[in-house]
Task: structure prediction
Amino acid sequence: MNSKHTIPPYERSGFRWAQPYLYLLPVLVGVVVVTGGAIVASFLLGFTDWDLVRPPVWVGAANFQAMFRSEQFYQVLGNTFYFVAITAPLMVVCSLGLALLVNQKLRGATFFRTIYFFPVVTSMIAVAVVWGWLYNPEFGLINYLLREWFGVEGPGWLLSTSWALPAIAVMTVWKGVGYNMLIFLAGLQSIPEHLHESALIDGAGAARRLFSITLPMLSPTTFFVVVITLIGSFQLFEQTYTLTQGGPANSTLTLSYHIYQNAFQYFRMGYATAMAYVLFVVTLCVTVFQFRMQRRWVQYG
Amino acid sequence: MTNRIVSPLLYLLLLGIGVVMIGPFLWMVVTSLSSPADLYHYPPQLPGAWHPENYSEVFSRFPFGTFTFNSVKIAVLASLGTVVSASLAGYAFARMEFRGKNVLYWVILATMMVPFQVTMIPVFFVIKTLGLIDTHAALILPAWFGFGMGAFGVFLLRQFFATIPKELEEAAVIDGAGRFRIYWQVMLPLARPALATLAVLAFMANWNDLLGPVIYLSSTEKMTLTVGLAALQGGELTARIDLVMAGAVVSIIPILLLFVAAQKFFVKGIGAGGVKG
Result:
C-alpha cells in the first residue's frame, strides 16, 4: 500500500493531499461546518430578538434575564428534572433486569428478547396513540384493570396535573427498555465465562456472583447506558407533543417542548435559542459530572 | 434440582413481561377494528362485531396512501444519504492519513452529544434560505451531509473498515485500481453487514421521526405517516379513536416487517454502539 511502485500515477500528482478531504466533504460540510456553525450561531442568537422574518436585533442578555425572572421557566426546569429523575433510574434498572433475564440459558429467551424490543422500532406517535387510550380514565384498560384486579381507583393519568408526567415517564420506559436491554446484553455476553465458572467452583451463590462478578464487570456498560439515558430524557419532546402539549396546567411542559413552542409557535427564536443553550449546558454538566464520578464505580477490566 | 423450580418461575416472568410489552399493540389492533360505540363503553370490551372497514375509511377520508408513500420515499432516500456520506468518511478515517485526522474524528463524534434543539433553529434557517421549507428535500438532503445518524455511521463504519485486512486492497492496487475503485469494489462489498446495520437503523430513525416533519412540512399531501397521524389524533378525529388506531397500525406494519426481516442488524448496530461507546 505504502511502497512507491503500488501508488497509481494520479495519486502522485500535486493534489494528492486533497483526496481524503474529498471523501470527507459531505460529512465535513454537514457535521463540522453547518452543525459547528449552528452551535456558534445559536449561542449568538440567544442574545438577539428574532422572529425569522426581520433580521435579528441584538438585545444583550435580555433573553436570559427574562428567562431567569420567569416563574414558568423554573416550572419547566423543575418538570424536566422531575421527568429525568423518574425515567432514568427506572430505565436503567428495568433494562438491566430484562437483560439478566433474557441472558438466562432458557429455551425461547431469544424470542422474548425480540418481543421486548418491539416497542423500540415503532414510532413514538403510534405508541402515544395507544397509550393515550390505555390511560383514558373512563374507558381505558389501565384503570379498568386497577379496579378489577387491585380494587384501586386509578387517577386521571394524562388529565391529572400530578400524574401526567409520571404516566409519560412509564410509557417512555416501556418504549425504550428494549434498546438498553440489548446494550446490557452485549455487555453481559462479553464477560468471560471462566470468571463465573471459577466462582461456582469456589461455591459462590447466584446473588454473590451477581454482585461480585456480573455487576462490576458490567459497570462500563452501565455507565454508557446511564449517560445516554440521561441525555435522552432531558430531550423529551415527542411524548408531550402528541399526548399533552405541555398540559394540564403546564404540568408536562418540559424544556425541549418549551423551546419548540417558543421557536415555532410564538416565533421567539432568540428566546428559544437562549433556552436551548440552557438545555445544552444542563446536559453537558450532568454528563461531565457522570464522567467525574465514573472513577468511583466503573471498573475497566 | 433448583432449575426445576426456578425455570417455570422464570418462564412465567418472561411471559408476564411479554404480555406487558406486546399487549398495547394487540389492544391497538383490537381498537382499530371496533366501532366507536364499542369503545366508549365501560367495562372495556372486545367489539361485538369486527369492523375492518375502519381501514378503508382511514384511507378514503385521509391521504394515508400518500402519507405512506412519503414516509417510504423520505426514509429510503435519507438512509441512503447517511450510508453514502458516512461510508465515504468512514473509509477516509480508516485508511487514509491526513492533517487534522484525529481532531476531525473527535469533533464529528462530539456532535452526537449536542442536543438537537441547539442546532435546530439555525439549521431551520439554512433550510428556509435554501427555499426548501415544505419540501421533502428538507428531510432528505441533510442526511446526505451526515446529519442525523451520520456521526454514528462514521464511527460504526470506520470501526468495520479497520477490521478488513489490508492485503485485500493491496491486490486491487497491483491490478491498477485507484482509491475510489478500491472503496467501491473492494471495501463496500466486504462491509455489507455494517452498511446494512447502518441503513436499517437510519431507516428506522427517519421512518419514526416526528420533529423534522413537524417543523418542515405544512401541506397535507407532503406529510409523512408520523406527522399525519399526529394531525389526525389532535384534529378532527379526536373522537374517532378507532380510525386513529387503524392509522397507527398502518404506520407500524412496514417497520415491523423490516424489523422481522433484518432483526440481526438491529441487534448488531445497538450492540456495537454500546460496547465500543
Chain A touches chain B through 101 residues (CB under 8 Å). The two ends of chain A are 35 Å apart (CA to CA). Chain A has a mean pLDDT of 90.
